[in-house]
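User: Second chain of the day. Same drill as before.
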Amino acid sequence: MNEKRQKSPWYWVPSLYFSEGLPYVAVMTIAVIMYKRMGLGNAEIALYTSWLYLPWVIKPLWSPFVDLAKTKRWWIVTMQSFIAVGFAGIAFFIPTDYYLQLTLAFFWLLAFSSATHDIAADGFYMLGLKEGEQSFFVGIRNTFYRLAMIFGQGVLVAFAGFMENRDGNIPLAWSITFFLLAGMFLAMSLYHKAVLPKPAEDISHGELSPGKLLRDFWTTFVSFFTKNDIGLILFFLLTYRLGEAQLLKLSSPFMLDPVSAGGLGLDTATVGLAYGTLGVAALLAGGILGGVVISRDGFRKWIIPMAIFLNVTDLFYVYLSVVQPESIIFITSCIVLEQLGYGFGFTAYTLFLIKIADGEFKTAHYAIGTGFMALGMMLPGMIAGWLQEMMGYTTFFWWVCICTLPGIFAAVLVRKTINPEFGKNKK
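Assistant: Same format as last time:
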């Protein structure tokens, strides 16, 4: 009886996808806020943290070897242990003189471990659940992945801000926060070692040679680039979020910078509440709304409006940088509306990834598409901080708005290639 209860999907699907989302949020968002509070300049923050996208860019290259060596269950538990070590290393070295070099090294460990964990977790989901269960739990897994975003960007950042205000010691506050994350993931790895089922299909394929696997992978990889309209596909993947990729790297520093430096002068806890909690909730609401309207009317009808909504809401940051309002409620409202538009518009990107992955190598081509998605965030983000320091916040946010135009143009071109029925919920 107890064994059966332990193997119920409710015991492991929510926690597995919460643990998949949290390290990604830590690398992509919490790191930005932490380095800003530690006194690092915007150019360095954007450059260093954008490089941390690289493991998600190239993870399709080593995903076949996760299938070859060990079981996916083994990879999940092991990577969660490595993630715990990564968080602990960051926490330990934050208060030191060489915190930047040493914490970045552990962030790299964290990023590669998290990307590998993603591969194993998504594969294990398909092995550990029956087909009907997979459909039922897809909403559950997505919900808990998003809850990890709220917990990371909201609760943990607010906690770090509380510790900053209580003790007046910024390095100590962030060190405690990352030690907390390390403890969570140590507990998570032990928990999943105990409760994850052992599907018969989850086996180590030792009989497959690395050479054959590499040849098969190369065939699959090359086939992606023989798709019809591959040039348009890559143009869309790399430009649809060109403006947003730069905005995301500077939104938190803009809120944290003092008014005299062109920022909003918010404290860490307020940023955690406004951007990390209410903003992420609006992002989720926008995504849900996007899914509803596409399922009703189809992807073709909504792709251009979604591209516009995703990008035009960046104008809120132009306004905030010009006015620099003092009202927390007004600032939060602007952030919420921008994130609502982002979530609504990003639905089109997700559906496009599904569309281009359709075919013989669906799983592999979807992974390659997500790699280009990460590349489209990494490259613009790397120079965003340098551009902001050179331009100032207001001019930089105008530049972001200009960078949204190629993505809208790409959406116009893609619309012509889409079947009007694609995306509709056929009853």
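The CA atoms of residues 286 and 337 lie 9 Å apart.

User: Great, on to the next one.
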